[in-house]
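Hey team,

Filing this mostly as a record. A colleague (T.K.) asked me to run one chain through the structure pipeline before their review meeting, and I want the input and output archived in the tracker in case anyone asks later how it was produced. No errors, nothing strange. Just documentation.

Input sequence:
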Amino acid sequence: MILRAIEDVPIKADTQPRPVWDVLFEQQSRLNGAKECWLIPQPAHSALSGEIAARLLPEAFGKFDAGTIRAIALHDAGWSAFDAESIHASRSQTAAKKVAISFVATPPKEALAAWTGSVETALKASPLGGLLVSEHFRTIAQTQANEHPANAKDIAAFIKQEEGRQAKLRPKIGLDLADVEQLVNGLRFCDLLSLYLCSGITQPVELPQQFQQHRFIIAAADSGVYRLQPLPFSDEQTYSFAAVRHPRTREVSSATFLCKITG
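Output structure:
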């Protein structure tokens, strides 16, 4: 689950950009355990990632075909059961006593199960898309191996599982490693941009991917309006995503957020 503060975060456009993941992790850790916040299910976030992928200029990360875009839109589908359980708890009679749990605080075993389910769902949409999602989570698992020594065996098993899966997929896809890596970077870009928008962060951040020999910088310019440079779209874009209020009130149960991205 992605957590978002109930009140909009004040815009501080004059601050220097920081690495997007550092800011996301700090923000999600700060909200983790909140008694009141917006909940954005991972599948809603990944659906937004797919919308972003569908509108990217092909010269940014290569051309995504329809099946691969669908796979990107499903790249967090494995979280559906976990997030549905969280939403159900937030709607229970004891919801006022419940706290929200961010995806950054999910136990490794649950995360590995969600990643596996996500890869298998993406594969049903597209072999190439499944490969991209597999590599996306394999690299994340590698970075977490040292952070969770108690789960090192499970993480190593997941990495081996995905390496074996990819070895079978690559001959069927027939793309060079460089082309696949470019598309994986595109998936990572869509994932991070979607996470940034969903989380409600407004401060400037830097995404690690590059376009036109520059790393991406995004920051809020106004309420619901963001400036992204360089702009990997043909023109400004408007996206939307749904969120659930935790706990719901008599007046508000859910909301739809709109985000406009300009250059």
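Quick notes for T.K.: The mean pLDDT is 93. The chain has one domain: 2-262.
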